[in-house]
Amino acid sequence: MTEPMEIEETDNPVEDDQYQEPVNPVVYFGAKWDSPQFDGATEVSTPVGGVCGYCSELIDDGDAGTFSNFGIVNAPVHLECMLRAALGSPAHLRGECSCSGAEEPEDNRSWREQGAAVIQMILDKQGIFSNTDNKEQEQG
Ligand SMILES: [Zn+2]
Ligand SMILES: [Zn+2]
Q1: Ligand nearest to the CA of 93
Q2: Is residue 6 included in any domain, yes or no?
Q3: Is residue 47 part of a domain?
Q4: Is residue 76 in some structural domain?
Q5: Would you state the pLDDT for residue 134?
Q6: Residue 37, pLDDT score
Q7: Which domain holds residue 47?
Q8: 4 C-alpha to center of ligand 1: Å?
Q9: What is the 106 CA–ligand 1 centroid distance (Å)?
């Protein structure tokens, strides 16, 4: 009967590599949205003059956004447009759409304007942006 081979403890770099955090493929520009989705995301310079993949408006200096990975390949998108696409319409978020048995009211605002409304709803509700001071002030 043979002795089981003794496994020497070595400095095995492969073992350590297995525990590396996965690289976040999300790329963003402008202000960083304080969401787990953006943890470890890569900041890039704002693609000024690029066409937003959702609202077709141009990306302007000072806009915040990301590069869509929701079916549009490599298109820069405004943050608000992305959130509008990901979270649903303002009416949906208010619980006033067909999901809740209601008839969704018509919303003539542009996709981007609806996105801005979605962001405002999130901010009002959760203060999801990292600055927490605003919350108290807005109450008054
Ligand atoms: Zn847009
Ligand atoms: Zn809905």
Answers
A1: 2
A2: no
A3: yes
A4: yes
A5: 42
A6: 84
A7: 17-139
A8: 64
A9: 20
Distance, CA of 116 to chain centre: 14
**Which residue, chain included where needed, has tokens 């993949």?**
53
Measured from the alpha carbon of residue 82, the closest ligand is 1
Q: What is the mean pLDDT of each run of 10 residues along the chain (140 residues)?
A: 64 62 85 88 94 94 86 83 92 91 94 95 65 42
109 CA → ligand 2 middle, Å: 17
Distance 13 CA to ligand 2 centre (A): 49
The single-letter DSSP state of residue 75 is: -
In the reported structure, the alpha carbon of residue 77 is separated from the centroid of ligand 1 by a whole-number distance in angstroms of 5
Distance CA 71, CA 112 (A): 18
Q: Which amino acid is at 7?
A: I
Residue 44 to residue 52: CA distance in whole angstroms? 16
Residue 31 near residue 65 (C-beta atoms within 8 A): no
Report the 10 Å Cβ neighbour count for 96: 16
Task: Compute, in angstroms, the gap from residue 128 CA to the centroid of ligand 1.
Answer: 20
Domain total in the chain: 1
Distance 71 CA to ligand 1 centre (A): 15
pTM of the model: 0.71
Q: Is residue 54 part of a domain?
A: yes
